[in-house]
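Check out one such.
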Amino acid sequence: MPTIPLVDDVYGHIGRNLMEDHLRERMKAVPVDGPPTSFAPIKPSTTYPVGILGAGAGGLYAAMILEDLGIPYKIVEAQGDVGGRLYTHHFERDIGAPFNYFDVGAMRFPKTDSMNRVFNLFDDPKLNTPDIALGSRIKRFYFVGAGNNNTLLSYNGITIRQNNQPPLTDDVFRATDVVKDTDAARYIAAGTKAIVDDVIRPYGKALLNDLKDGTQDGWELMKSVEDHSTRSYMAFQYRPSSSLGLPATALPNDVINWCETFDKSTGWYDRSFSETVLEAIAFGWNPDPSVPPPNWFLVEGGSNKIAQAMATYIEKQKPDAIDFNSRINYIGMGKDGSNNIMEVKIDQRATSYKFSHVISTLPLTVLRTINIKNAGLSLMQSNALRELNYGPSVKIGMLFRTAWWTLGKDKDGNVLNIVGGQTYTDRPLRTVVYPSYGEVMAGKTSALIASYCWTDDATRLSALMGNDNKVLQEFVLTELADIHNVDLEYLRNQLVEMKPWSWSNAPYAMGAFAFFGPGKFKNLYTALTTPAGGNAFHFAGEAISVRHAWVEGALDSAWRAVAELLIHSGADEATRKKFTDNWGINLEWVTSSALVRRNAPTKPGDLPTSHLPVLKNPRLDTTLFSLESSLLVHQLAAAEATAAA
């Protein structure tokens, strides 16, 4: 497997510093003097495999790692296929086949340092044998419309092409009618894009400078606003740069609402400001206008092909690796003689699984619906399962007879000529995503994401979804017709099939992706990065990573869960070395001083191994990561020492 590059990125920088600060506080309770603390004796079971709960991206990735290390495992999956939120819906009719599908879940991947692990997976030789060939499916995604970018902006009853925007002072979208609690003219002259950029700039720029200069200033600045939502930061702490020509005060509420409408989705600004900053950087924000935006990619055939590729490889090595259609109803600690085990029970089965360790990649929302009262969770971990937020998201896919948005004409006789990209609106559909796969330049792909919504917009639209979607279908067609200025009856005749999907209503997801509220990274998130169940129950999934809503987050969390398992099962040196040689390092879990490519001096309160007598235990040696020290080692050591104190 190609080595995963040791390149620091903003997510790794945030995650690492988050854990370092958390551990400095936690280790105040660890006894520094006296005899070394040690783990309770561990007798690794050679009888029972590792249980992996969920066959989504994280679960399959964990299985690939364990397969490579020669550690037995079993994947338990509630549904009849792999993928989880790597879900691609294929329409029943074959119009436009083989491109008669849309990605209900993950659909696009930016080529940035923050996404190294997922692109490394695309290139993994094990997934690029002639019968799998995942890498050959990676194609360009048109985040911005191809050609002249004829996609649309439609706000306050006004629709224009994105390639034909008039000067801001023209107030084409009638902001004066919605910004009423202040003199609107100066804000309109600045524009929502410039204001939002100015809000993010000090934090995004400082974080990127941290990576470049080996400093911590960006982290300290970001930490100072961790308890803010985006809305509260803009309303109370933000002060506009003088270059915008705005009053030197925080933003009025109407201006904040106006910015949110054009920048994100309804209610987005009520979530963590940290999430907004990280999201902007992930999507290519950079203070230097000369830096080109990232290239975006998709998986031809749908993102479920990622899961299928991993599953095909896994099942070639172990045909019975995945137990499908097995809904878990119980996870608890048990005994096998003197060995600690984890017991997992399945609906309508008399027998249960016995595992040496369990890695749960289930969404936290779903995990709460399972009986885990005997799984050994701390109170903080139980609270984290309840309190950490998932965001709602809706997609409505439609298959048409033709790609009317490319080949069709509007009511004025103009050819629409939209190829790829996205139309944005304040109407209920919010975002229309045009296909980037297949022969889109020739208008041969006729599957459209008619609506992609988040937060409150998704919650409201999902209320129209049910067994009979006729009302929803007519509503969506009417909205599409109005936005694109085409005849409604024409679209009715063009429509072949519709597939609406709400992730909040999906029983095995209960939310689209982790989307934390203010302050929830500090204690709740960190609680789930330590195993429960006597160190045999490990939490994974994109929520247990700072890379929320990205497949990369699921993969990184699976890496961390396997690393925990190796530590607590007493893996030998050869296994530990193979782990890091073949699967790289997770930079969320490497101390700042151990990043050899950075020149920053050790800061006061850093975490060298000498601070913890517990680290004298040979099973906690830091050779597991081939670096000076690991935050994961400190996290596990501090948990043990605190419990023993």
Notes: The first helix runs from residue 10 to 26. The longest strand covers residues 328-336.
